[in-house]
Write a structure and sequence with these properties.
2 copies of one chain form a homodimer.
Chain A: H1 21-35, E1 39-40, H2 41-48, H3 52-64, E2 68-71, E3 76-79, H4 81-93, H5 95-111, E4 114-121, E5 124-131, E6 146-148, H6 153-158, H7 164-170, H8 186-199, E7 202-205, E8 212-220, E9 226-235, H9 240-257
Antiparallel strand pairs in A: 1-3, 2-3, 4-5, 4-9, 5-6, 7-8, 8-9
Chain A binds a DNA duplex through residues 16-21, 24, 40-42, 51-54, 56-57, 75.
Chain lengths: 261, 261
DNA sequence: ACCGTTCGTCCGAAATATCGGACATCGGTC
DNA sequence: GACCGATGTCCGATATTTCGGACGAACGGT
């Protein structure tokens, strides 16, 4: 049907080309999020399949509400402050996330490396919180961007409650192909998961990015199911000693976050 | 009925009671933000003047888009994860805010007290970033909530580029009345501003809250105009010595954030 | 100075989203 | 067990929002 790796999203129309304003707005915001950059109104209209006149009308309304902001030489629009306010309300309203914010901020500051808090959404992995370390070598946070589960360290923990065949049915086959074209062997992936579960943490190197290592520890619900992970993103040449210390830090934080002690 | 200080917003109708979906959605989100709590659909409909059937229809659409989430025993709705993603995109896209996040996180962690980054929006003060300290005595962040300028320490810096009469014309007269009913004398307020400008920081005690002191330092643009503030919110009984150290911390951070060195 | 392109606004027509009200459910109360 | 209030769904009518296309302005390349 649709295979949007980074792909675009046309508004689905059943018969005619007419759609509700709210649906066009949702498509607009989703488009800005996937582009992650201020975008010209005409381009948004084209890429979302919205009539130009309609898009101008909607953008005016949204700018007035501060959902969007005109950027640069008035040529482009991007998210406005209202989104930040609503987003903060969301973060504060979810108990686990509120606690995770404290943990992530603390370990990022004390260890000095980028720390993240991650969960699943559907059959994809995504970063919910991202606190850059002192290094700041990864400028762009990838908050809310869906990533195939096998590309990530955390992903190996987040599915560890399933049986092997269940996992392979759950994850789309194409998600085993890395950005550089390599394919992750399914049995190695399953073995990774088993080992991670036993160790209580997971480490991956050079998966998405040749020079990056990810260290992750599981946040588990009372039933023992991994509901989220907390992790560090560090250069691959970080000393083993330092990595071991980080793993201990992660395990302690993850333990504190796990509901019901 | 409802008398929640921060006023409610009925959807404006010109002639008939009919409104666009997008306008109803904006009113809905604004309402949730002002209530800051999961709210029942029927209540939202009543308080925003939206027909119940319309509200149910819209909420369904928004829940599907993850703009909203059903909470509790499915009885109420509140902001969903999409708002957080869009809000994060906004934060990352504004240079000053991105830098301020680093500063606020750092000083909150090292000093251990709640730190904030604030600006003006129209003739109101508002908190853009809030990082709770170790104390965490103020649980609810007030991000995106508009507050009268005279109620705040930062407010005294944010208007310090104006002449006295300009300031008094700019700030609505009723904003000089504190939550407890006391009225701030206008000449004392003007004097506060002058002193703050000379000192390069400002301190207020027991303004909004009897037991709270605010310390703030100005972030200035190349022309010297205060475009934002960075501040600490601490218990009023914090020692003078500790407060002096915090002031120095704030001034250093504010200096780093001021564009053009 | 001459095009071709993009930007933003405006307008009338008609497809349809909003609205009001009816209805079925569910829980709690007396 | 009857009553009351609140919740959520459904449906048809019509007021209105969306849409297409036209238009003038602004821009940039030749």
């Amino acid at each position: 049907m649709k295979s949007n790796g980074v792909a675009e999203k046309q508004v689905e129309e059943k018969s005619t080309g007419r759609a509700r304003g709210i649906d066009r707005v949702i498509a607009l915001m989703e488009h800005l999020h996937s582009r992650r950059a201020p975008t010209r109104i005409a381009d948004i209209a084209r890429d979302t399949g919205t009539p130009r006149s309609t898009m101008y009308e909607l953008v005016n309304t949204l700018v007035e509400a501060r959902w969007l902001e005109l950027r640069d030489g008035e040529g482009t629009v991007y998210f406005g402050p209202a989104m930040h306010y609503y987003g903060s309300d969301y973060l504060d309203s979810v108990d686990l996330i509120r606690k995770a914010r404290v943990e992530v901020a603390h370990i990022a500051e004390t260890v000095g490396e980028t720390a993240q808090f991650c969960t699943l959404e559907g059959d994809k992995y995504l970063v919910v919180l991202n606190e850059p370390g002192r290094r700041m070598f990864r400028i762009s946070s990838e908050i809310g961007i869906k990533v195939p589960i096998p590309w990530t360290a955390s992903g190996r923990l987040l599915v560890d409650h399933m049986a092997a065949d269940e996992i392979l049915r759950f994850i789309p086959s194409e998600d085993f192909i890395l950005p550089d074209g390599r394919r992750i062997a399914e049995d190695e992936f399953i073995e990774d998961i088993r080992r991670a579960r036993n160790q209580g943490y997971v480490r991956t190197t050079a998966l998405v990015d040749r020079f990056t290592t990810c260290l992750a520890a599981p946040v588990r619900d009372p039933a023992g199911r991994c509901i989220a992970t907390i992790c560090f993103v560090v250069p691959a040449d970080t000393t083993e000693e330092a990595q071991q210390a980080m793993i201990e830090t992660l395990k302690a934080s993850a333990e504190r976050l796990s509901p019901g002690r």
